[in-house]
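Record 1 of the preview.
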Amino acid sequence: MNSLRNVSAALVAALLGACAVTPSMDHSYDATWPEEVNAEAPPDGAIYHTGGDVPLFENAVARRVGDTVTINLVESTQAQKSSSTKTSKNTTIDLPGPTVFGRPVTVNGTEILGVDAKNATKFDGSGDSAQSNRLQGNVTVTVAKRLANGNLLVRGQKWIGINQGREYVRIQGVIRPIDIQADNTIPSYKVADATISYGGQGTLADANSMSWFARFFNSKWAPF
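->
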């Protein structure tokens, strides 16, 4: 009995510990630093060296690893679905009983070998579903990698502390340098393979979270 109590206590502690996990800094979204440039000039006596040029007729937008670019979050999605199904079926079976010497087999005047069966089924079902999401704001991210075709892999996160909690926005995806506007911004709907997440931690986030006990009884594994 002591062993059973110990195992039960350990299981409850594990469940409570797992449910107490809150979002934290994801270091995979940390800023990517640019490659360090060798400050020492090559001993060739030349005035011009590759890598130290400054383009005069080029927009100052992100194009190298470590450069920053601002992503304008203009996400808005709406989905709606409805369905309706109606079915009905009626079955009637009427088989007269056999006759013996030209007369039906009866007991107390009631025919006993005849079959008279009726069946009726009906189904009427309907369902409606609607969902909408909206996310607006700005997140400045860094270029993590320049792909072979010239596209840029960007990722980053923003944390904001408000009263008794913290909120974050994370984004990762691939952008085309040609889509970057002159002010070094790009709308989020032009980010390919985008992963955008929004969440928070703290007192307010905990108050809006369902307990693990309630989640169990709202899951498909609930016994009733």
